[in-house]
Amino acid sequence: MSGVTLTLRALHHGERRLEKELVAVADRHRTEHEVHHVATDLARWSGEHADRIADAARAYELDLKGGTEEKPGEGLLSAVREKTAELLGHRPEPGLLLLRDLRSLHLAAAENSLYWEMLAQYAQAAKQDRLLALSSDCHPQTLRQMRWTNAMIKVLSPQILTSL
After folding, report:
1. 32 is in which domain, residue-wise?
2. What is the CATH number of the domain that holds 66?
3. Which segments within the chain are labelled E, that is strand?
4. Mean pLDDT, rounded, of the chain
5. Do residues 50 and 15 lie in contact, with contact meaning Cβ atoms separated by under 8 Å?
6. pTM of structure
């Protein structure tokens, strides 16, 4: 397995993981409307990124599509998350949980950002225009995911941490 295939595999896995985490955070913090709606939109970006990576990986004889998994946010687990969010919506502990979730999302997006950068550098060196275009299209959205989590942490930290 080559370095580029390892990078594609890691990036695909990272985008799928971030997609699932974003959906889980949106469900868990349903009462925080901005978090819920923005996280849902950002999850869609990661899903699209993963699909595009899987398509690009075929040129390297790498099958990243896998089996038919349950889509993030569907099924029994989503219903449990939703009910938990409703029950915990007005206690101080959800604030700490939200900060922890935002931190986790930020770190996952940062990891993906590094892989996008590695892929772009490889694509430039190897003159792989398709991979360079993929990185150029997707990496800015990953950076936007990071900016959102960072901004939310800056806004929410003072009020959550001082209210304990």
Report:
1. 3-162
2. 1.20.1260
3. none
4. 89
5. yes
6. 0.84
